[in-house]
Amino acid sequence: MIALSIVQLSKTYGHYRVLDQLSLDIPSRHCFALFGPNGAGKTTLMRILATLTRPSSGQFRIWGYDGVTEKARVRQLVMYLAHGTHLYDDLNAIENLRFCLALRGIIPSDSQIKRALDRVQIGPFGHMQTRYFSAGMKKRLGLAKAILARPKVLLLDEPYTSLDERGIAIMNAFIQETIQREGAVLMTTHDREHTRQVANHMGILHSGVLRTFPPHELSTYVVY
Amino acid sequence: MSFIKAIRWMVWKDLITEMRSRETLVSMLFFALIVILVFSFSFSMDHQAARELLAGIIWVAFAFTGIIGLGKSFLAELHNDCLEYLQMSPAPKGAIYLGKMTANFLFMLLAEVVLFPLFIIFFNLDVVEEIWILLVVFLLATEGLAAVGTLFSALTVQIRAREVMLPVLLLPMVIPVMIAAVESTRGALNGEPFALYSQWFHLLGVFDLIFTVVSYWLFELILDT
Fold first, then answer.
1. Is the CB of B85 inside 8 Å of chain A's CB atoms?
2. Which string of DSSP letters, residue by residue, matches B123-168?
3. Across the interface, do B88 and A104 touch by the CB < 8 Å criterion?
């Protein structure tokens, strides 16, 4: 079953073509890692798939739902962990989780929240306002949100940034878990070593053009 | 997800963040206090003149105080890209609008409740008999300002000159609310029979209904662009 299907997707800003006729299928139980130099269009692609930006042409489908005309369905299935933390500084960690999940229609119990926070190892900081969190703690809280939301398609924009080794291990464990429960993951990254542990398909985006390659050729392709 | 629950969570989030930061209400109250002081020093009015002019002064103060609050409403969502999260969440966008509008309405109303007694003191007013009519005017007019203001706050939040653009766009749109609010308040303060100014109540009610519905439908379009 194809979880994420992209067909001839293009995005232009004025005369600058960021994505050029990009096509890609990611089946369920797969993690696709997308490499590419800065400005290659990785984040633009993520934003399109998260329904934040409209493509200039082409289409994409998430579990069969059209990403432009069936946004409401797509938004229920996708979770995007972006560069921005999507956290309210004046709310504490638990309140942030409750609010963000409530907008997805999820009301977790106290014990579920506690388990998620413990899993990402910020359990003792549940009642602390997130304005006092470090970048890594905010990233872990975002991961706790994804753990509780259990999305069918997970979009991760540079997921290892700001995380320490333990945090990266927790992130990779969650990616594996998402794959095992029939989900699909698309991640952009520059971190070859940690990506190799979870990704079973890879590609490099350069000047808006995608070239896919098997993971064992990672060191050959990813030079930019 | 439940539409009503989404509204409730939006209101809860805005109230909690405001209770902790006090950023919006404090700015609104200080601004309004300065406006009252400036007006009270600028016009030395006897009791009758105050009743004639005060309705306009009150609503100028309330409208500009409201704009301060409305300007901050969506600004808070830009921090940490929270607006992006609202945009891509599966929650009905109409519920997000109504939640934000309700929170803005409550902040503006709270500011008015604090400020109106100051008007009574500074301008030596006796409003005991008209207080219930005035309260209804405040509710209706504030709802109209919040309904249109919330939409324009979302529209202008990503514009560089948003502080200027919000009042420039909003004030012409709410002229009917301002006229109706001023006329109703003047009628009440002068102790006129309700029948003489009841048409302004009707205008407020119709404006609230139309602009709340229109803003509700337009909000998704604005959030997605």
1. yes
2. TT---TTTHHHHHHHHHHHHHHHHHHHHHHHHHHTTSTTHHHHHHH
3. no
Q: Which domain holds residue B119?
A: 3-224
Q: Which tens digit of pLDDT belongs to each residue from A158-209?
A: 999 999 999 999 999 999 999 999 999 999 999 999 999 999 999 999 988 9
Q: How far apart are CA A184 and CA A192, in angstroms?
A: 19
The label of the residue with tokens 């500084």 reads A89
Q: How far is B13 from chain A (nearest CA, A)?
A: 7
pTM: 0.92
A–B CB contacts, 8 A cutoff, strictly below: 73
Report how many domains make up chain B. 1
Provide the 8-state DSSP code for A15.
Answer: T
Cα separation, B65 vs B58, whole angstroms: 10
Token pair in block for residue A68: 């432009």
Domains of chain A: which residue ranges? 2-88+154-221
A152: its two tokens: 């069918």
Report mean pLDDT in 10-residue bins for chain B, 225 residues: 91 96 91 88 71 87 94 92 94 96 96 91 83 94 97 92 91 96 93 91 96 96 85
**Dihedral angle over CA of B217, A66, B83, B102, nearest 10:** 30
Degrees to nearest 5, angle at CA B150 with B147 and B156: 140
A2-88+154-221 belongs to CATH 3.40.50.300: yes
Task: Indicate which of B5, B16, B85, B87 best probes the interface with A, i.e. most A CBs within 10 Å of its own CB.
Answer: B85
Name every chain A residue with its beta carbon within 8 A of the beta carbon of B13.
88, 91, 99
- A47 Cβ neighbours under 8 A, 6+ residues apart: A53, A80, A82
